[in-house]
Automatic annotation (TrEMBL):
This is Histone deacetylase. GO terms for molecular function: histone deacetylase activity; hydrolase activity. Residues 24-289 form the Histone deacetylase domain. Keywords: Hydrolase. Pfam families: Hist_deacetyl (PF00850). It comes from the Bacteria. One of its GO terms (biological process) is epigenetic regulation of gene expression. Belongs to the histone deacetylase family.
Length: 300
């Protein structure tokens, strides 16, 4: 059974001027239930990730200051969110959701988090709407518990997974692959194990050609026993921050390619949603919903 981390708290507690990007966390589960892709049984309430797990990836002093609401104004501006106790609690719950979804992936082949994909969080700082790094925390958890020996992180958000690359720069058991807009945020890119920078405006055919060239070869080369998939939909041509040219169909085919490869090789995969900033909320929800539809079709 497909198990999906979700809580009403995912959509809160942000001030009104930050609400639009968060609407998808309310609307996406509603859409999936309405169309019959999932039932309530597919959803689980995530538990907050314990502090000792957070400290396996994030610096103790950073966590102390974040948890104590002691970040400087410039640090807060870099995250993009006004800092609050409720915001930190939300982030810690999302981290727990990805760890639990990874556990379900081990059991069922695939697990998902309606939030997550917070790949701009570094060991000692947050930025770009990311305070803590859920895929890094979940990957470290699997390694610590002996539940995975080699992890591949497939990051197809339009923005480079700079925080994830920094966290695992010296960890040979985690291979970081980021295919992202070369001229997009962040201005300074970290070094992933494999970076594929994309030109502005790239369309479906060229994008999918590049992904087909790299991902199957990586599966052979890395031979992972677990995959984390950052499935951001800010690759769409309609995205206000993306600069790429993918259609909804192209984005769906991207997801199909990733999930098919994992299924064919019997590699458990955990998907986090990542970014999406199209002008029409319907485009964001539809693109994300396609990931869940494909998960049901391919794995279940």
């Amino acid at each position: 059974m497909l198990k999906i981390a979700w809580s009403p708290e995912y959509a809160h507690p942000l001030p009104e001027n930050h609400r639009f990007p968060m609407l998808k966390y309310e609307l996406l589960p509603q859409q999936l239930l309405y169309e019959g892709t999932v039932t309530q049984e597919n959803f689980f309430q995530p538990a907050s990730l314990p502090e000792e797990r957070i400290l396996r990836v994030h610096a103790k002093e950073y966590w102390r200051r974040l948890h104590g609401l002691e970040l400087t104004p410039s640090e807060i501006r870099r995250t993009g969110f006004p800092l609050s106790k409720e915001l930190v609690a939300r982030e810690v719950m999302i981290m727990g959701g990805t760890v639990m979804a990874a556990e379900f992936a081990l059991e069922y082949g695939m697990g998902m988090n309606i939030a997550g994909g917070t790949h701009h969080a570094f060991t000692d700082r947050g930025e770009g709407f990311c305070l803590l790094n859920d895929n890094a925390l979940a990957a470290q958890y699997l390694l610590d518990e002996g539940k995975a020996q080699k992890v591949l992180i497939v990051d197809l958000d339009v923005h480079q997974g700079n925080g994830t690359a920094q966290i695992f720069a010296e960890e040979p058991r985690v291979f970081t692959f980021s295919m992202h807009g070369g001229n997009n945020y962040p201005l300074h890119k970290e070094k992933s194990d494999l970076d594929v920078p994309l030109p502005d405006g790239i369309g479906d055919a060229d994008y999918l050609k590049l992904l087909r060239e790299h991902l199957p070869a990586l599966m052979e080369q890395v031979n992972p026993d677990f995959v984390f998939f950052q499935s951001g939909v800010d690759v769409l041509a309609s995205d206000k921050l993306g600069k790429l040219g993918l259609t909804l169909a192209g984005c769906k085919e991207r997801d199909r390619l990733v999930l098919d490869l994992c299924h064919q090789r019997r590699i458990p995969v955990c998907a986090s949603m990542g970014g999406g900033y199209s002008t029409r909320i319907a485009d964001i929800v539809e693109a994300h919903a396609n990931t869940f539809r494909l998960a049901q079709q391919i794995f279940f």
